[in-house]
Design a protein that fits this description.
It is a single chain. The chain contains 8 helices and 19 strands. By secondary structure, it is α/β, with parallel strands linked by helices. It has one domain: Alkaline phosphatase D (PhoD) (Purple Acid Phosphatase, chain A, domain 2, 4-Layer Sandwich), CATH 3.60.21. The strands form 5 sheets. Strands 6-7-10-11-13-12-16 form a 7-stranded mixed β-sheet. Strands 5-4-3-17-18-19 form a 6-stranded mixed β-sheet, with helices on one face. Strands 1-2 form a two-stranded antiparallel ribbon. A hairpin with a 2-residue loop joins strand 1 and strand 2. Helix 3 runs parallel beside helix 6. The protein is globular and about 60 Å long.
Length: about 425
């Protein structure tokens, strides 16, 4: 286990943690076309309307992703995204902000109506951005939603507008009106790209449509400066859910499909568990179930990506720092790369004095994360996963965050072979 933990925490300094720069990007982008419509996959005689058709001839080397995007505000990050020319783009939620400004209304129904009426126009503004149109022309677009494009802040299955909001979601993605996806609750989906030996599976989770209510902890505000910010406490009620029974059954089946690398996209963080905002850890039994699923079924190649937090960071599960220990150890470094926000970063800043007005403000935010590698990044950015299938030993994966200027601010490399359970050790065990 110590070797795997060391691999998680290796290369935090030196050339593997790249300094932050603020140079401007320039370039001309192609204008647009329609977004790629989602396809269906047939498995046996069953139409699985939540999966995309496998594309074994499409070898993927670059997957970009991000979250927390206000389509009414400037977003130079899209020019930076276009520069890396991703083959796949993943929305990790909060594609638009339907509840900003705060909706008026005395009742939940009235506020719900306000946000639902806003969604079509906000989505249209995003699709109209020239840089995003260029991305739609070139990349496979997939994604999930979080609270602000789902409806209202921090809501789950109790949001009364979720059925209508889902139709607006599918309109944005170009889902055909007759698609079975429009009749099935939830927006989860998956696809396998590439031939054997170079297969990438992308799994998109929906952590909103079926989620039970959160529990408010009423914590003193001063605890924020002690590194435990946020209002919610973990639920002790194991009848509560994050994904719901149907999505869980689908996920268990989906992860049995063969793939060398798997990206599991969650709108909220999976590994980070010390803060008190939204996270999988607010439903400890659901977080445990996901980690046990990866462990028990010896599912290799998993990389988690998440959004929501308005800051970027890289976490790697350290079983020694978890009560479950070996029972949730996948036998390899399990990373969770959080990318947030595209243009809604919310750093705590110290304004520079007038004499140094040209300098960037200093970012500082104290938040404990016992699984974090390196530092948090509090400016606008996006995430990037690059896969070099030709690298020695079966390939290499590079995880990174890129500032809105395009500059790399965090990097972690790991061999594809190192993301597979160690067949020489007991499941979850270490050497």
């Amino acid at each position: 286990m110590e070797n795997r933990v060391a691999l998680c925490r290796r290369q935090v300094c030196g050339e593997e943690m790249i300094g932050v720069f603020f140079s401007l990007l320039t370039g001309t982008l192609r204008l647009s076309g329609a977004i790629m419509a989602l396809l269906l996959i047939t498995t046996g005689s069953t139409l699985r309307a939540f999966d995309l058709a496998a594309q074994p001839d499409k070898v993927i080397q670059r997957v970009a992703f991000g979250s927390c995007n206000n389509s009414t505000q400037p977003a130079p990050v899209w020019d930076a995204v276009a520069k890396v020319d991703p083959q796949v783009w993943l929305w990790l939620g909060d594609t638009v902000y339907a509840d900003d400004p705060r909706p008026t209304g005395d009742t939940l129904a009235e506020r719900t109506r306000v946000v639902l009426d806003r969604l079509p126009g906000l989505y249209a503004r995003q699709r109209a951005l020239p840089a995003y149109q260029s991305l739609m022309n070139r990349a496979l677009i997939m994604g999930t939603w979080d609270d602000h494009d789902y409806g209202l802040n921090d809501m789950g299955a109790d949001f009364p507008g979720r059925v209508e909001a889902q139709q607006h979601f599918f309109d944005f993605y170009g889902e055909p009106k007759e698609s079975p996806r429009r009749t099935r609750p939830g927006v989860y989906s998956s696809i396998v790209l590439g031939p054997p030996g170079k297969r990438l599976q992308v799994v998109i989770l929906d952590t909103r449509s079926f989620r039970s209510p959160l529990e408010n902890g009423n914590f003193p505000r001063e605890q924020r400066v002690e590194g435990r910010p946020g209002p919610y406490r973990p639920s002790s009620d194991e009848t509560t859910t994050l994904l719901g029974p149907d999505q869980w059954a689908w996920l268990e089946r989906t992860l049995q499909q063969p793939a060398e690398v798997r990206i599991i996209a969650s709108s909220i963080q999976v590994i980070a568990d010390d803060h008190r905002f939204e996270k999988w850890g607010n439903f400890p039994h659901e977080r445990r179930r996901l980690l046990r699923l990866i462990h028990d079924q010896r599912i290799g190649g998993v990389i988690l990506v998440s959004g929501d937090r308005h800051t970027g960071e890289l976490s790697c599960l350290d079983p020694l720092r978890e009560p479950e220990g070996d029972a949730i150890d996948p036998g390899y470094p399990l990373f969770d790369l959080t990318s947030s926000a595209l243009n809604r970063s919310a750093p705590i800043v110290a304004n520079p004095p007038a004499a140094n007005a040209g300098r960037r403000p200093v970012v500082f935010s104290h938040e404990i994360n016992r699984h974090r590698i390196g530092s948090r990044f509090g400016y606008n950015h996006f995430g990037l996963i690059e896969i070099d299938w030709s690298a020695t030993g079966g390939g290499e994966v590079t995880l990174s965050l890129r500032a809105e200027t395009g500059d790399e601010v965090l990097r972690q490399r790991v061999a594809v072979a190192a993301l597979q359970p160690d067949s020489g050790a007991r499941p979850g065990g270490g050497n």
